[in-house]
Structures
1.
Amino acid sequence: MSALFDLTGRCAAVTGAGRGLGRAVALGLAGAGADLVLLGRPGSQTSTEKEIRDLGRDVEVVEVDMADHEAVQRVGAEVAARREVEVLVNNAGIIDREDSVDVEAEAWQRVIDVNLTGLFLLSQRFGAAMLERGHGKVVNIASLLTFQGGIRVASYAASKHGVAGVTKALANEWASRGVQVNAIAPGYMVTDNTTALREDPERSQAILERIPAGRWGSAEDIAGAAVFLSSRASDYVNGHVLVVDGGWMAR
Ligand code: NAP
């Protein structure tokens, strides 16, 4: 059975792997045997690079700002041309917390640029190579705000609803050609993304009380789902958004 989840000899690319969920996903994939390409901003992934090397896996760091669409397309095409990347995890993401009436166009656009447009453009570049080979996996990091509106996070909710749309659209086009496109929707996880919520005693308590599992998630909680969606075990899973939320959505 473990062979189904074995990633030995496979190359996986993860965006934003220097910290938080991206780091945990990259280490999880490395633990399952994958070699890694870490895509992110200069200097931000050095410690994860070392941790993966310590696991005995091959690891390469590639600099790219996911808000820079020209760079995303150029770097994506360049890496996809010289490496057989079989798994792409689109993890990099930002959040802007403010009242909707105060959101300026620039701030709105930045969230859409990183969370949605960058994700789509990188999927295009790696996806084209996967389609040529006839196999590959794209795993997008969505959110509970793929399903819900959230509070004071309109641009983020819009971007994450969009991630589900892109996931399903690409899955529809690529499933018959051997490429599975799916997403993970993490619940409330302890990372820098949720610092503001955890520092607000009332929000923090209200969130905790709604989670059936009775705790916030850790970054490591999504590693198993990432390995599943990156491995042969998910070969007949297409266009799915897998919720990993301690039961939040079941409530
Ligand atoms: P985080 O700790 O803030 O990490 C965000 C990651 O994205 C960092 O590695 C960051 O790199 C990278 N990133 C941001 N902007 C970038 C850019 N322009 N170019 C390249 N990389 C960029 O947050 P996280 O919780 O791990 O978030 C990871 C993903 O999970 C995001 O898509 C987020 O929306 C999603 N998510 C998180 C939660 C949660 O509860 N934490 C829940 C649902 C979904 P730098 O170090 O260079 O800034």
2.
Amino acid sequence: MPSSNRVLIFDTTLRDGEQSPGAAMNLEEKLKVAEMLEELGVDVIEAGFPISSNGDFEAVNEIAKRSKTSVICGLARAGVKDIDRAAEALKPAKRARIHTFISTSPVHMKHKLQMEPHQVLEAVVGSVTRARHHVEDVEWSAEDATRTDFDFLCRCVEAAIKAGAMTINIPDTVGYAIPAEYGALIKALIDRVPGGEKVNFSTHCHNDLGLAVANSIAGVAAGARQVECTINGIGERAGNAALEEIVMALKVRADILPYSTGIDSLSISRASKMVSNVTGFPVQYNKAIVGKNAFAHESGIHQDGMLKNNQTYEIMTPESVGVAKTSLVLGKLSGRHAFKDKLEAMGYELGANALEDAFRRFKDLADKKKHVFDEDIAALVDDQLAHGQDRIQFVNMRVVAGTFGPQSAELELSIDGETRLGVARGDGPMDAIFNAIKTLFPHEATLVLFDVHAVTEGTDAQAGVTIRLAEDGKSVTGHGSDTDTMVAAAKAYVHALNKLLVKRQKTAPEALTAARG
Ligand code: KIV
Ligand code: ZN
């Protein structure tokens, strides 16, 4: 058993998480998430897969440049080109790690790699040696380890350790293992592989059977001292083990799980919201730790118990994961000073101009809405921060909806500072709005996701709309909020369109002017 009980948190939201269909993030969003992960106290940030695209290379490189405390990690297959590209992207990092992997299970070796086991073993040695050539900190993963022949897995792990890997990751790539089995696998590897006591074993569990967190914890109890996970559990298919669940399980059950992490649990709620926002993946209401209902008590018996003593139905407090009690903030008579104090208490630091703009928008909102809550303020400021630099801005809109006549929209957009009016009919008000946007900014993108949620309770609540647009196999996500759902939808659509422009500008700069017609 390892002598230390400190468990390293390896976050792969920006790599495995971003691989989930529709979760793509742009550079700016990745930088924001990486900064938040460092603040959260993540030990290792897997920032991307540098050979997979120029965008991934740039993201890993920029994150490496800005990193302060976390180890920045880049993924590479077992090939020279992959590993050299990862090393190049990671060059500016204060602390860099190359994570190289190859499949070891019979089904993967035969059908995916079309390699014989001895060739895979050679590739393990070759890839780890190459990576060690560039950096000291090398992690090796046996993809599909849980469906791998145990003796062969031992030989591969031994070879990786001999070649210089310091971390050995045992992925349950297809989410097939159950906790007792996964724990036994980790323990057997630590016990049997020569040199196993010198390296850090790591868990990497997918959630296909809903067991990713349970398997990861079984791995830790068996001796693993690194856990690979993602915020909100996003990731391939059913996702990865959720960071917040692992951290809080270790914290709340420290009585039988005596392990510590470096995570500041008070920042968990903010991290969850940020990742949900940038990916456009809503958090399921009953999701452990970060779901909207995770600390809600509905039944009379539970509410009665809670009023008497919160330990009757709460094993941790909402405050311990950074969920502030919903509070009535300010009204329309509140002044600039109170507004600024509130923003600071919520963790926002705005410059003088941005603060003035936010205050004006807050006043507008307070005119429309009787009670303004923390969530309203967060939606308003997030909207402003997200849309501030956009080349296309929503200005005004009038919509005809309902059963009397053809639905239509008149809409004003400002495109590079020039305000234009577009008018269109549609099959329903949303269709009319999106058609009006198309008359002003012709494009071929298709709408692949439209999600509406209420920011707070009550019929006067703001609507938060998330829209995903797809073009040429790439997708982007936009957000908008407003007390008028249709305005929120128009803002979200325009926001997504701006992101599409950034993507297009990188591949074909002339497309921007051409598309404006
Ligand atoms: O699930 C998996 O096996 C992976 C590896 C690349 C570590 O993500
Ligand atoms: Zn994975």
